[in-house]
């Protein structure tokens, strides 16, 4: 028997995202498993609130974005984000776009390192937050797709840009035009994600990565992740200049003290080697 037509999700906005902070890691979940975590206006609004709340909390050093249930996110909500807004008019369409794009933008420039932990379906609009995260790890049974072409739209909301940024040209073209999904290992081979792992090893690996990130100087990490994004759009000369300025700005945020202490541990105390891991930052007041 065919299922009844879909109805708007009656759950309150607060329920669409859940999170917990454990040992310095904020685990943030798309939380509409019954709807494969597709992004409704309510979810987009709530994500922005959650992300902004977590950004400056002292107990958060890394943010991991993952999904409850079988999906990471099945993209934009075709009912609540598209159809209902189109029935309401242009003001609703624009308002939905702004709410979605603005939390992806906040995540792209989040003050702390971010990791996408893709546990299942990842479609279309979900490429926005996927790209916004600095690192990405998926389970082997995850599926990635630009399904837009399958329902007669183009990959908007930045999705085309994400494919063009992350994939080689021919692969991006094929991916956007064919509407076929990539498995986790295929996505890893094409470098859409850092690694694909068996589902039962995924969290363990992400935790390992978080532990390494937690040991780094937080100000230097922020400067590094922002620099890596900025320089992709610069000429070599502009990048060189920007990086000098960015390092000088980092010095104003305690970077000089960190560097001096790290150098002391290497050159004088001989307790650490920069080529083999992070310096011991516990001796500093900050961080
Ligand atoms: N928008 C609205 N509702 C959705 C979406 C979505 N993107 N994805 C899933 N749902 C809903 C389904 O309509 C269904 O709702 P119902 O309970 O009211 O019937 C519920 O979530 C469960 O979905 P099923 O299709 O039954 O789940 P299944 O596990 O069989 O399939 C799959 C999962 C493959 C992800 C399928 O739901 C799907 O194709 N979703 C759409 C994916 C997509 O193309 N997203 C848009 C990308 S383009 C863009 O984001 C701009």
Please write out the topology.
Elements: E1 17-22, E2 25-30, H1 41-55, E3 62-67, E4 71-73, H2 78-88, H3 90-108, E5 114-118, E6 121-123, H4 127-132, E7 135-139, E8 143-145, H5 159-166, H6 169-178, E9 182-183, H7 184-189, E10 195-197, H8 199-215, H9 218-231, H10 236-267
Parallel strand pairs: 2-3, 3-5, 4-6, 5-7, 6-8, 7-10
Antiparallel strand pairs: 1-2, 8-9
Helix pairs in contact: 1-3, 2-3, 5-6, 9-10
Acetyl coenzyme *A binds next to helix 2 and strand 6.
Protein name: p-hydroxycinnamoyl CoA hydratase/lyase
EC number: 4.1.2.61
InterPro entries: ClpP/crotonase-like_dom_sf (IPR029045), Enoyl-CoA_hydra/iso (IPR001753), Enoyl-CoA_Hydratase/Isomerase (IPR051683)
**What is the terminal-to-terminal distance?**
58 Å
Tally of helical runs: 10
Order of helices and strands: EEHEEHHEEHEEHHEHEHHH
Question: Any guess at the CATH architecture of the largest domain?
Answer: Alpha-Beta Complex
Uncertain spans, ≥5 residues at pLDDT below 50?
Answer: none
| The CATH topology of the largest domain | 2-enoyl-CoA Hydratase, Chain A, domain 1
Mean pLDDT: 96
**Total domains, how many?**
2
How much beta, percentage-wise?
5-15%
CATH class categorisation of the largest domain: Alpha Beta
Query: Considering the protein shown, what is the CATH homologous superfamily of the largest domain?
Result: 2-enoyl-CoA Hydratase, Chain A, domain 1
Q: Rounded to an integer, what's the Rg over CA atoms?
A: 20 Å
Give me the count of strands.
10
Bound molecules: acetyl coenzyme *A
Form type = globular
Structural category? alpha/beta
| Main beta-sheet strand count, sense and barrel state | 6 strands, mixed
Strand order within the widest beta sheet:
1-2-3-5-7-10
GO molecular function, one term: feruloyl-CoA hydratase/lyase activity
Enzyme class: lyase
Keywords: Lyase
Protein name: p-hydroxycinnamoyl CoA hydratase/lyase
